[in-house]
Amino acid sequence: MAQRKAAHTSRLKAVLGPTNTGKTHLAIERMCAHSSGMIGFPLRLLAREVYDKVCAIKGAQHVALITGEERIEPKNARYLLCTAEAMPVLADVAFAAIDEAQLGADRERGHVFTDRMLHARGRDETLILGSATLEPMVKALLPEAEIVSRPRFSTLSHAGAKKLSRVPPRSAIVAFSAEQVYAVAEMLRRFRGGAAVVMGALSPETRNRQVALYQNGEVDYLVATDAIGMGLNLDIDHVAFAGLSKFDGVRQRRLTTSEMAQIAGRAGRHQRDGTFGTLAGTGGHDAEFTPEEVYAIEEHRFPPLTRMFWREAEPDMSSLKSLLADLSRAPDRPELAPAPEAIDLAVLRRLSEEPDIAQTVRGQASVRRFWEACSLPDFRQHGAETHARFVARLCQDLRHGQLGGDFVARAIADLDNPGGDIDTLQMRIAAIRTWAYVAQRPDWVLAKEEMAARARAVETRLSDALHARLTERFVNRRTSVLMKKLGPDAGLLPVELVEDEVQVDGEPIGHLAGFRFRVDPQCRLADRKLLLAAAERHLPALRKSRAEALLAEEGARLSLREARILWDGEPVARLDPSRNLLIPRITLDASLDALPAELRQRIVASLEQWLASQLKALAPLHRLNAAAGEAASGPELRALLIRLVETGGILERAGSNLDKLSPEQRVRLRKLGVRVGALDLFVPDMLKPAALSAWCTLQAVRGLPHHAPVPNMPPVVATPGKALAPPGYRRLGKQAVRLDIAEKLLRAAHEARVAAKGRPFVIDPALAVSTGLATVSYAHLLRLAGFNATPARVLSKGAFGPPQPARWRWCAPRRDSAGRAAAPPVPRPDSAFAALAGLMR
Q1: In CATH terms, are 12-149 and 156-299 the same topology?
Q2: Cα separation of 502 and 508, whole Å?
Q3: Is the pLDDT of residue 833 over 80?
Q4: CA 640, CA 651: separation in Å to the nearest integer?
Q5: DSSP 3-state helix, strand, coil percentages of the chain (rounded to 5)?
Q6: Fewest Cβ atoms closer than 10 Å to its Cβ: which of 5, 10, 450, 756?
Q7: pLDDT tens digit string along 678-722?
Q8: Residues 177 and 435: beta-carbon distance below 8 Å
Q9: Which residue in 100, 119, 95 sits closest to 28, CA to CA?
């Protein structure tokens, strides 16, 4: 078996496990941690979803989307999100991953995933993601790979058979033919208000729109083929199988347990448990799981893969005969099996038998171009014979060079017709995807960018039309209630709260977000007042029950954002300044004004108790505040403590009047936990993330500008532009150093000064380098503390050796009229000090 030379990798890992284990999320995190990377996905839809996520993290200018029908490739792209077929295997990237690698056992596409698993590598790290059934293949084909097993985050349990009328909301019903999908969706429209439809034949845009119908709660049911089994992460609580067999392109067969688990695993999200079962009452052929299948799915125990399909990925292109021979050659390893004849090879074999075509394909370049045309995917699903005729016409047009822009534009324009039924629109979308694929080839089409943009625009219009047809047919949108016959008395309309949704006679009219009622914007204008009046008549009771729930939870769902207290993300109170800076006053939101006074007082007391627990990290400031009120502190110390409280326990030493304190007051200051540094006075406990976060809340209450605290508080952070330094840090040019680290560095410098006994001394920069502080920033810090460098003597001409280190002297920092340290002098560009600064950099 000829194998491509794989790029060297320092780390190869196989992450295996069932659905809902966070494998794809792990791959995204690992890729974003590297300077470059690529991931190959089984679906264009999944590649697009991850592309949007990575763009939000790294910026669209650094991320590329590469699929057969769509290519977004910025000039500076360093992160590639691809379908497996479009994956540039030999790309020089630091990280590489292949998702759902167990698809190497798929009859149609398996050889592609096998090749990517064997050859796609990153310089530093490579991940192979897949089912646990892949483990024997990884051990056999990639013995150097580290295997990591991941457990499912939630439990998946069998719920038995249910009639369609008893299937709970937030469920997906899975069928295995278009006719069965339409039949189930039609029944749900009649009896449950409608369902979203997801099938493999839909375009990614249409699938996204249908999924949004379900995710947004417009419908509570999703009817789908096994297309949801891979890549679609939805809020599904239950998966019901309408059948347990499918046609796999060769025969009708029962699903394997791993296929059942892949689909059933869509139930449950993250740590929320899910259930699966079958539909009952469909006739005499109700599908049922066997006890062995239930056990295998619940316990994630499946037969391991014993082979993967393989096909030569770099065949000999010298002639059609050698190309066919290489593509038909069997692998030389027992773990690999020859791939069944896929549509591209079937088309190649069919056209190679026609003398008029075969005699025109001569030479390596011609054979390669012919094979690329035969590899055009059969989006229309017409079969090898019909697809071969289309490819033959394409090859004939390409024989004389690139396709003209007018020719491609006409073909695209012929499909730009949003009229017709569901099946007609599906056929047009499949055809336009074919032309979108053709337009992505720069060696096939003139004006590639323009033609690709036209094809995408037409696909979007057709997808919108198909979504509208599906919604019109399978979703019953009632925008008015049926209780108008009761007359103008809206109080007779039954109003209930389902989760956060306010329903009148079962029809959603708005949401109760926190304690605020928001009318559904889709209600008719003529019905708006009627429905709002019905809701307002019952909202006091609903709000009162919510208030009781808030009190019973004891702050479980409360959070702080700036100067507001939120409950489930909705404001319930704001924080206002009070006489005590450290204890803000709580003012309830206006949406709680309708509650009884006694209940409002209880809520305020509960919120005050919760807020105290959130601000408990400010205990060091409370101690300083208490000491400031004691007569024993003396006026000088009291003034200093008040300033420390007002600045969050952090104060520049210059201008702090520290020199006016007596020795006894200095001892008292130290006992209160205040550290006197060379440049700053600070309370070490106030440098902790929790304390800084609480202090930023107080700053927001006072309406003062502030910088959000840095997570985990590293020793050094970057400070681009003219932004404020994060709290707890001292800015040094383009970097900021944490105050306690700055003090540690300056203490080490003073120890070197003392050891030198008045002579010039050398400061070892190792400690500063270990914190991540740049040389120029370290020099800035030393100059602020009064250290000045003496430039090293330049080696004479012809002399060699390491440069002499700079020698330092110390003198007390100069002060301005306000007592602040003067800014360090900037050396002239032609001076020796400027040369020294260059050497230090």
Answers
A1: yes
A2: 6
A3: no
A4: 9
A5: 45, 20, 40
A6: 5
A7: 899 999 999 998 899 898 888 888 888 777 788 888 999 988 877
A8: no
A9: 95
pLDDT tens per residue across span 561-601: 888 998 888 888 999 998 888 899 999 988 888 788 899 89
**CATH topology for 12-149?**
Rossmann fold (3.40.50)
CA 591 → CA 37, 541, 544, 571, 588, distances in Å?
49, 14, 12, 9, 8
| Backbone dihedral angles phi then psi of residue 123, each to the nearest 5 degrees | -60, -40
Query: How many C-beta neighbours within 10 Å does residue 52 have?
Result: 12
Angle at 186 between CA 183 and CA 191, to 5 degrees: 125
What's the length of the chain? 841
How is the beta sheet containing 675-676 ordered, strand by strand? 650-652, 680-682, 675-676
Question: Alpha-carbon distance 454 to 446, whole Å?
Answer: 13
Alpha-carbon span 40 to 89, nearest angstrom: 9
Closest by CA to 275, choosing from 158, 398, 356, 377, is: 158
Output the pTM of the full model.
Answer: 0.55
Closest CA to 622 of 695, 531, 556, 567: 695
| Cβ contact 719:749 at 8 Å | no
Fold of 156-299: Rossmann fold (3.40.50)
Distance CA 422, CA 202 (A): 10
**Strand-pair category, 71-72 with 63-66:** antiparallel
Structure-token match 């502080």, residue found: 773
Question: Which of the four pLDDT bands, split at 50, 70 and 90, describes residue 547?
Answer: confident
Phi/psi of residue 63, each to 5°?
-125, 135
Strand ordering across the sheet containing 125-130? 71-72, 63-66, 79-83, 37-41, 95-98, 125-130, 12-16, 146-149
Cβ-based neighbours of 164, under 8 Å, separated by 6 or more:
173, 184, 187, 188, 191, 279, 281
- Residue 279, both tokens: 């539909």
Residue type, 635: P
Can you tell me the distance from the alpha carbon of 114 to that of 337, in angstroms, rounded to the nearest whole number? 11
Domain positions in the chain are: 12-149, 156-299, 480-554+578-607, 734-841
- The pair phi, psi for residue 223, each rounded to 5°, is -110, 125
| Rg for the chain, CA atoms, rounded | 35
CA–CA distance, 200 with 700 (Å, rounded to integer):
51
Residue range 79-106: mean pLDDT, rounded: 92
**Residue 399 to residue 392: CA distance in whole angstroms:** 11
- Those residues with Cβ within 8 angstroms of residue 796's Cβ, 6 or more apart along the chain or in another chain: none
Q: How many CA atoms lie within 13 A of 454 on its CB side?
A: 21
> Of all helices (H) and strands (E), which one includes residue 312?
none
Q: Do the beta carbons of residue 165 and residue 51 sit within 8 Å?
A: no
Residues 146 and 14: their CA atoms lie apart, in Å, by: 6
